[in-house]
Amino acid sequence: MNAEKATGSCELEKQVFNGWLMLPVTIGMLFVGLALVIDGARAEDGHSHWPELIAGGLAIGGSILTMLGYFTLQPNEGRVLLLFGEYRGTVRQSGFHWGNPFYANGDRANKSMGTRYKVSLRARTLALEKLKVNDKRGNPIEIAAVVVWRVRDTAQAVFDVDDCPNYVHTQSETALRHLASAYNYDDAAENEASLRGNVEEVSQALRVELQERLAKAGVVVDEARLTNLSYAPEIAQVMLRRQQAEAVISARQKIVHGAVSMVDMALKELASKQVVELDDERKAAMVSNLMVVLCSESEVHPVVNTGTLYN
């Protein structure tokens, strides 16, 4: 059996009437209706004029009905227009507007989207709490991130997901967990990114994955960045000692490399300037002494030989 593929919604921008132009019409209908009702009730023969009363009542009812069509929008805010269950468009222009009074009036149980299907188009910040996950090597780490997002398509945000902010939060946590498991915390192989050593690249990868996950909700991810990255407490001390040991080894390698270069330079200088001629045994002794002096962590006090070179 082939599963049916859900069809996503698509936003349609809608133009409505200016509320300030419709306001005099509503007030005029109200006063005309009141005048007709009063005039119909003052009958000279003692009988009410029912046609005037009916017309006045309809005018008053019409004015009250038109009052339900007024709404305001702030900058970076939109209203989704729903008429008897059918999507008719989205108003994005800020100001005082009037639309069909029968447009949906917030009867949907979705408090996150606000009343009358108003949707905020402003940039929102989601700060994810620290998550304990395993990196690519299986080491437990703690990671957190901040995501800046906004609604691009109001129809998708309202109709294609049940709760847009909660959907963004859930998908962001899922994407962050997946990202952490795809990279090593540090010490990655050659030409391989790590979480600690390639923060910019990792943040960009997180933003791309989030955009793919949130596209069906009509959401655009403006920025995604790691805010916390550390080993889990249970292995933090062990990893710290390992990092210290690696730092010592790296420093030793540089010291030895520098010492070998200096010894080689010293032997070449002595030979080229013919300061003294040394056989292999004396060269070996000289190399040993120089390496001790150059690689020793404490101050070296050499013994000065006042006799001959071979005594």
Layout of SSEs?
Layout: E1 17-18, H1 19-41, H2 50-67, E2 70-73, E3 77-83, E4 86-91, E5 95-98, E6 118-120, E7 124-127, E8 131-134, E9 140-151, H3 154-160, H4 164-182, H5 199-214, E10 219-231, H6 233-272, H7 280-295
User: How much helical structure, as a percent, in the residues?
Assistant: 40-55%
When the domains are counted, the total is 3
Structural class: alpha+beta
Number of strands: 10
Query: What name does CATH use for the topology of the largest domain?
Result: Tetrahydropterin Synthase, Chain A
- Give unreliable regions as ranges: 1-5, 106-115
Strand content: 15-25%
Count of individual helical segments:
7
Q: Whole-Å distance between the termini? A: 98 Å
CATH class placement of the largest domain: Alpha Beta
Q: What gross morphology would you assign?
A: rod-shaped
Q: Which homologous superfamily in CATH is the superfamily of the largest domain?
A: Band 7 domain
* Reported CATH architecture of the largest domain: 2-Layer Sandwich
Strand count, sense and closure of the main sheet?
4 strands, antiparallel
Order of helices and strands: EHHEEEEEEEEHHHEHH
What's the overall average pLDDT, rounded? 80
| Cα gyration radius (Å) | 40 Å
Q: Can you tell me about this structure?
A:
This protein is of the alpha+beta class and 311 residues long. It has helices at residues 19-41, 50-67, 154-160, 164-182, 199-214, 233-272, 280-295, and strands at residues 17-18, 70-73, 77-83, 86-91, 95-98, 118-120, 124-127, 131-134, 140-151, 219-231. The strands form 3 sheets. Strands 7, 8, 9 and 10 form a 4-stranded antiparallel beta sheet that branches. A 3-stranded antiparallel beta sheet has the order 1-5-2. The chain has a 3-stranded antiparallel beta sheet with strand order 4-3-6, covered by helices on one side. The longest helix has 40 residues, at 233-272. The termini are far apart.
